[in-house]
Structure formats: structure tokens, C-alpha cells
Amino acid sequence: MPTRTWVPPGPYDLHRTLCVLGRGPGDPAFAVRGGEIWRASRTPQGPGTLRLAARPADGAVAAEAWGPGADWLLERLPELLGAADDPEAFTPRHRLVHASHRRHRGVRLARTGLVLESLIPSVLEQKVTSDEAYRAWRLLLQRHGEPAPGPWDRLRVMPDPRGWALIPSWEWHRAGVDAKRSGTIVRAARAARRLEEAAAMDLADATRRLRAVSGIGPWTAAETLQRVLGAPDALTLGDLHLPKIIGYALTGRRATTDAEMLGLLAPYEGQRHRAARLILLSGTVPPRRAPRFPVGDIARL
Where are the coiled-coil regions (predicted)? Predict the structure, then answer.
């Protein structure tokens, strides 16, 4: 069982740094257990499981890994934990952002280096509620993934590209995934080799590479590359809630368009995703004025 330890160069918050990689409660590929974080990934060398634990005594993060992908995961451990991120490049321009930045100085932008791992659940989240997308991801991994290597049999590794492409239509339907989203995932799986190359590109080139696949728009590309590249400027556009949250946090009123949000975040050019992340971490959200969006279930249709 290979191991590795990484010592951050300053304050570090393991859980808030990596929480964006989980896809809701019950995610078969990501879990928090006894204060430790467990991840199951399909690496270029095969399936791998990673267990991460913060060591407050010396400020380090200790990692253990299992499976054919263990060496790949440990080799890239510092990047996953945010070693390539540069939080010092960020300058708060608003009082709320400054307070959140000060309170969350240990949060870094994680970089997984694995495209399909973040792209497929992002496609599942298109135009549906989070609960619907999390349920679909959970069911698909449970039925079509494989047991993750290591001591914890609860974890599952997602299918390889061929496995995603071979999922029959009725299985997508059973998971509540419509034909548009399942078609996008199948096209992405067939282009997996080219898409995975985006992990070594800059943000602009990586975005173009992902958007070359029909069904992958700016929202999906940004949500994917935030995690794959740890890109500080990969701001999510086309989101139903984010402009309202940003507008309310920075002005006390709701911004209703992407254009308004971009105007508010213009002082953070190059760091707009980080600014949005800090605003979300502040917990400042507009009061709810309408009932929660109903959860659909196409599997019952």
C-alpha cells in the first residue's frame, strides 16, 4: 500500500478544498468517513482509491492509495490538494469577499487532472435539480461501475469510456437521464482520449476542446474545468442561481443575468471563479421567494 505526505505552504483546509469533488450525499466515488476523505477514480493506469487525512499536529496531509492507479494518484497528490494554486494572486475588492477570504484562507483550488471524472456528472446536472443529478450519478455507478480497490467496499469506480458508451437506453431512463444528456455523455465517452488531453491545456484551449462535443456548453465546460484544472477564472455561466447569489451578496439586490454578474465580478478578472467560490462560502444568499423546484423522475414516465 503506497503512501505519501504533503505539507501545505500555509493554512490549509482539506475538507473545503476537496468538497467540490463530491456529488451529493451517497456519492459512490467520494465520501467522508471519520474525518478522512475517500476518493475512487479511474486513472490512466486503472482504478485507484485514495484515502486522505489531515494531521493537525504538523499541518500535513497523509495519503494512502490502493489499486493499479495508486501510483498515479500519489504522484499527483500535491496538485489534487491545491499545490499548483496561487491564492496570493487574489485581492479582495468587496467587504464581504474580504471577510470570506480571511475566514477561509486554507481553501485552495483542487486540480484532479481527470476530465471524464468531472465532465460526466456535470452533464448529468444540466437543467435538472441537484437531487436528480446526484441520484442519477449514484445509480449509474452502482449498476455500471466496479468495486473500488482497497479496504472499503462501499466505494465504486466509474465505468471506463467504453462502459459509458455501452449503457443501454433503458438504463439511462431508469436513472432518470433524458436522451439529450445521455447522448452527450456517450459522445464524450467516444471522444475520451481527445477530451482527457484538455487536462494539460490552458483554460481557453481546454474550453474549446470540451465544447467541440455537441451538448457541452459554457456551463458544463466551466463546471468541469474548475475541478480538472483548478482554474481560478473558470466562472460558471448560464446557472439559474449563481447570478442571483452574486448580485445579492455584493449589492443587496438580485442580479438576474450573466451580464450583470460579469459586471460585478469585473474587478476579479483572472480570478472570477475564486471570487464566486468565496462568496458562496460566505453563506450569503437571497431569501427564497418561491417554492423549491419540483424534482422530476422520467423513469416513471
Answer: none
